[in-house]
DNA sequence: ATAGGGTTAG
């Protein structure tokens, strides 16, 4: 833990170095009362080396512990890390022998050691340092049953333990219960809340901390800034930078880079660019990380030209791309459908003396999958046996199942399950897709789907949609729609794709009226239909020659400003052109359509390349 | 405990 390395430790070192302990040890009457230890030690100055060798030589664990407590009681003597670390093994043995902490304390008492608050506090600290958190909790509980009110230090430790056990609410209860919070109270809370990326609680605790007159150290400041920038609270990040300046922490390139990516993440590219210019203005030169943030930021917002200008800037600066930048480039080219260029970056890694990592692998797998160059897959099969992380595994499962290599996909899934990874909805979605495409009986797939739901992990719309779509694709319309309706009832997350898939099922089942009612239901639920939704329902209606319904939905589509694909437009034209009155009603719309046909017939291609 | 990066459905 970092917080031990601060000035408290320094102070102890100084005090110990000054050897006040020797004077106290010799003349304090209390020391004489403690018997054996005092007679042996008190005459000499109490040094860390001395204490350590005595701790090691001590014949019984109980005696060792009593001696440890006795030393700690001496004025201005503070145990060093070595002594504490040694005691971890000792108390571990005692706890094992006596089963419970209460019994250890009782045995201590029987052996003549007075049980004072300080004793329990030290015991707590030993367990805490030794990561024996269950025992630490026992000591803490024991304190109150002895009638001691835990002090700030004890409560700090307990809060830390509760955070480590993921008991955030209880940890914060302890935090709030600390009457006089010190720097460490805040620092521990902030460090845990930062690693949990809980920007809301970080905000609250940081405010309290400053109100009570403390400032985070530079490392914690950086962490806090990182959390705000990553969670879309860049405005707060900005305020944190102001605080850093006030408390004398230097604003490094890292800080600027974080803010740049933070502004992009919050969808404010102009502010990111302004900041970038500002940093140059004040003489802080951007590095590869800053450029990578810019590149990624522009790409995420579809500002392709700007993104490429960043690349040429990197080139003109003579900066050699590192593996992260190369990974971003592979990803960028893939998203633009420029698969060959993505491949070129990948093959250039060797020349650049860079080593591909799991990010590279995951991006390349997805690139191969999107480019449908499945013949490259066998080379990935080697990866199945190797160390897979969650994302790479997910990427592989997805790629294998889409390319009809269901058995490989299942192999990866099994591999991941055996590895004690926290499988997420990507994994389960890929798994279900592999099952459905691999021809598993619908009933089995649904059974597994329901089992996964019962796991109570966070599932998203993709997951449910994959199952429903899988059923639609094998013609199990009734089951598919039953699951879809249950999703609505249970308020499972559903998105445009989910509704579109359900409409597809209804269209295929020739239940056109129900398809139309799902369309209006989705609007009521606040989910707006997109081009694919309209394409699905309008093609269905055209096939059924439902002229009037086509007209109604076409108007809605036009009103919502959704542009149909050429294929669907053609179907509509075919159906309606037979009726003069309808043609005249839509004349202006149709004219625009035919104009667009002439200008660009490659509408679909564009939509593919933009993801 | 990390300044920047990777995976999904029609």
Automatic annotation (TrEMBL):
Q: Which InterPro entries match?
A: PPR_P_subfamily, PPR_rpt, TPR-like_helical_dom_sf
Q: Which parts of the chain are coiled coil?
A: none
Q: Does the keyword S-adenosyl-L-methionine apply?
A: no
Pfam families in the record, alphabetically? PPR, PPR_2
Q: What PANTHER family does the record point to?
A: MITOCHONDRIAL GROUP I INTRON SPLICING FACTOR CCM1 (PTHR46128), TETRATRICOPEPTIDE REPEAT (TPR)-LIKE SUPERFAMILY PROTEIN (PTHR46128:SF358)
Key words, A-Z: Repeat
- Family as reported in the entry's similarity comment: Belongs to the PPR family. P subfamily.
Q: What is this protein called?
A: Pentatricopeptide repeat-containing protein
Supply the source organism for this entry: Thlaspi arvense
């Amino acid at each position: 833990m970092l917080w031990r390395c601060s000035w408290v430790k320094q102070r102890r070192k100084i005090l110990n170095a000054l050897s006040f302990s020797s004077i106290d040890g010799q003349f304090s009457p209390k020391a004489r009362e403690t018997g054996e230890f005092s007679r042996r030690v008190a005459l000499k100055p109490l040094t860390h080396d001395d204490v350590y060798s005595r701790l090691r030589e001590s014949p019984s664990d109980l005696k060792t512990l009593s001696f440890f407590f006795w030393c700690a009681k001496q004025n201005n003597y503070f145990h060093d890390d070595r002594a504490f670390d040694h005691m971890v093994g000792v108390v571990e043995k005692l706890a094992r022998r006596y089963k419970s902490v209460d019994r250890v304390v009782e045995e201590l008492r029987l052996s003549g050691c007075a049980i004072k608050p300080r004793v329990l506090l030290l015991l707590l600290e030993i367990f805490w340092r030794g990561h024996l958190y269950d025992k630490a909790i026992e000591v803490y509980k024991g304190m109150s049953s002895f009638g001691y009110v835990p002090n700030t230090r004890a409560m700090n430790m307990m809060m830390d333990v509760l955070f480590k056990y993921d008991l955030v609410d209880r940890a914060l209860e302890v935090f709030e219960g600390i009457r006089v919070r010190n720097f460490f109270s805040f620092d521990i809370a902030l460090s845990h809340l930062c690693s949990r990326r809980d920007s809301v609680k970080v905000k609250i605790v940081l405010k309290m901390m400053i109100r009570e007159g403390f400032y985070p150290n530079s490392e914690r400041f950086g962490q806090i800034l990182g959390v705000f920038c990553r969670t879309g609270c860049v405005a707060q990040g900005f305020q944190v930078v102001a605080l850093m300046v006030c408390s004398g922490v230097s604003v490094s390139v890292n800080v600027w880079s974080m803010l740049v990516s933070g502004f992009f993440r919050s969808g404010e590219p102009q502010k990111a660019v302004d900041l970038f210019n500002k940093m140059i203005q004040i003489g802080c030169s951007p590095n590869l990380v800053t450029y990578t943030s810019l590149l990624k930021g522009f790409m995420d917002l579809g500002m392709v030209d700007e993104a490429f200008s960043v690349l040429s800037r990197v080139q003109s600066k003579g900066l050699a791309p590192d593996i992260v930048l190369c990974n971003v480039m592979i990803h960028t080219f893939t998203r633009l459908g420029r698969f060959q260029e993505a491949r070129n970056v990948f093959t250039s890694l060797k020349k650049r003396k860079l080593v591909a990592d799991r990010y590279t692998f995951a991006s390349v797998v997805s690139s191969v999958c999107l480019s449908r160059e499945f013949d490259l897959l066998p080379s990935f099969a080697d990866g199945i046996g190797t160390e897979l992380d969650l994302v790479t595994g997910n990427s592989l499962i997805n790629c294998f199942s889409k390319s009809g290599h269901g058995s490989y996909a299942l192999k990866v899934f099994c591999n991941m399950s055996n590895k004690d990874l926290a499988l997420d909805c990507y994994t389960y979605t890929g798994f279900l897709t592999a099952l459905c495409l691999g021809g598993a009986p619908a009933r089995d797939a649904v059974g597994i789907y329901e089992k996964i739901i019962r796991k109570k992990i966070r599932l998203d719309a993709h997951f449910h949609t994959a199952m429903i779509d899988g059923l639609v694709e094998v013609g199990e319309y009734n089951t598919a729609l039953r699951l879809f309706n249950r999703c609505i009832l249970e308020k499972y997350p559903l998105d445009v794709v989910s509704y579109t898939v359900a409409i597809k099922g209804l269209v295929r089942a020739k239940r056109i009226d129900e398809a139309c009612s799902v369309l209006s239901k989705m609007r009521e639920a606040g989910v707006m239909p997109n081009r694919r939704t309209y394409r699905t329902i309008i093609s269905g209606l055209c096939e059924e020659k439902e002229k009037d319904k086509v007209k109604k939905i076409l108007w809605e589509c036009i009103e919502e400003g959704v542009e149909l694909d050429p294929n669907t437009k053609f179907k509509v034209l075919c159906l309606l052109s037979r009726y003069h009155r309808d043609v005249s009603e839509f004349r202006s719309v149709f004219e625009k359509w035919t104009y667009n046909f002439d200008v660009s017939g490659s509408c679909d291609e564009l939509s593919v390349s933009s993801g």
